[in-house]
Amino acid sequence: MIELFLDTETTGLSYSNNHKIIEIACVETEDLIPTKNIFHKLINPKRDVPNEAYKIHGLSSELLNTKETFDKIADEFKNFIKDKKLIIHNAPFDIGFLNHELRLVKVEEIKKNQVIDTLDLARSMYPGTSNSLDALCRKFNIDLTRRTKHNALLDCELLREVYINLIGVKEPKLIFSNEEEIKVSEIKKTKDYSKRVVQLTTEETENHKNFIKKEIKKNYY
After folding, report:
1. Pick the catalytic residue: 19, 40, 150, 208?
2. Rounded distance, CA 170 to CA 215, Å?
3. What angle do CA 129, 186, 140 make, to 5 degrees?
4. Percent of the chain with pLDDT over 70
């Protein structure tokens, strides 16, 4: 299964107050193992970055003024996420901003059924506690030392680790052989194959019938 972990950074909390997206990151995985297929853009918001927002993500107006505007990357973004499941923490925030920007440039919006919200999932599992990304990382002993500032690409990577813990599968392992890292997915080993249908051959069916007959005679006659 192909998944995309998505995160954004913005100039503020509400697009209705003319706040804008300034960073988008999507990290693609297959069965939760990174494929190295990444979408990452810094975006010119065509407005100033408030000091409060700058303190959170460290993205300045001077830096962003040299980047492309959203309308220039909208089609590339939509093509990248097409037909893929989006995994987002606090999805209404990111999807609200993204769909607002997509409407402005007349590009099809993201549908709700394309999205998994890990905040909803965490709240259902741990009601009454903090379920921020930082709090969940601490709960699952995920290293946060790199997160000195909010960064969309890093947050996607952290969210992947959080999601793996939330759904209770094993983290893909790294095995060292001949000085090379070989990724082995333990996730696939955890899948439930109990409902898989196996078609027996005629010979196997006859052998099974004969075995049952022998067991009946042995135990009941």
Report:
1. 150
2. 40
3. 20
4. 76
Cα distance between residue 150 and residue 12, in whole Å: 13
Q: Where are the alpha helices (DSSP H) in 19-175?
A: 51-57, 61-64, 70-81, 91-104, 118-125, 133-139, 152-166
Q: 110-156 pLDDT, tens per residue? A: 999 999 999 999 999 999 999 999 999 999 999 999 888 899 999 99
Written as six digits, the tokens of 104 are 């402005």
Cβ atoms 68, 43 nearer than 8 A: yes
What does R_g of the chain's alpha carbons equal in angstroms? Answer: 24
pTM of structure: 0.77
- The CATH code belonging to domain 2-175 is 3.30.420.10
Question: Is there a catalytic annotation at residue 208?
Answer: no
CA-CA-CA-CA torsion for 130, 169, 6, 150, nearest 10 degrees? 50
CB 182 within 8 A of CB 175: yes
In this structure, are strands 85-88 and 115-117 parallel, antiparallel, or unpaired?
parallel
DSSP string of 134-194, one letter each residue: HHHHHHTT---TT-SS--HHHHHHHHHHHHHHHTT-PPPEEEEETTEEEEE-STGGGS--T
Residue 41 to residue 68: CA distance in whole angstroms: 9
